[in-house]
Design brief:
Elements lengths: L9 E10 L2 E5 L5 E5 L20 E10 L5 E9 L1 H14 L1
Parallel strand pairs: 3-5
Antiparallel strand pairs: 1-2, 1-4, 2-3, 4-5
Length: 96
């Protein structure tokens, strides 16, 4: 990433992996960060898979940078791609 990463920055990324404790988001080919399950959305998250899937495009905010772990980022999801949310909502409405 050509620009210097800073706490508070808002960036776009893509979910590359999901674990019970959070999701990994790639900001580019060299930099990725962790979104802890508690930072996925407001309120309690029982299953992260209800909120994120691999391939989702998300806007994230950099919460902290761990220089000792090669600039490991801790992120907060600000917004998911609206298209995916609309598709999930329409699918659920059709079931009703």
């Amino acid at each position: 990433m050509a620009e210097k990463l800073e706490v508070g920055q808002i960036l776009k990324g893509k979910v590359t992996g999901i674990q019970p404790y959070g999701a990994f988001v790639a900001l580019n080919e060299e930099v990725q960060g962790l979104v802890h399950i508690s930072e996925v959305t407001h309120g309690f998250v029982k299953d992260i898979n209800d909120h994120l899937t691999v391939g989702d495009e998300v806007s994230v905010k950099v919460l902290s940078i761990d220089e000792e772990k090669i600039k490991y980022l801790y992120l907060f999801v600000l917004q998911k791609s609206l298209q995916k949310n609309n598709n999930k909502l329409n699918h659920r409405l059709k079931k009703l």
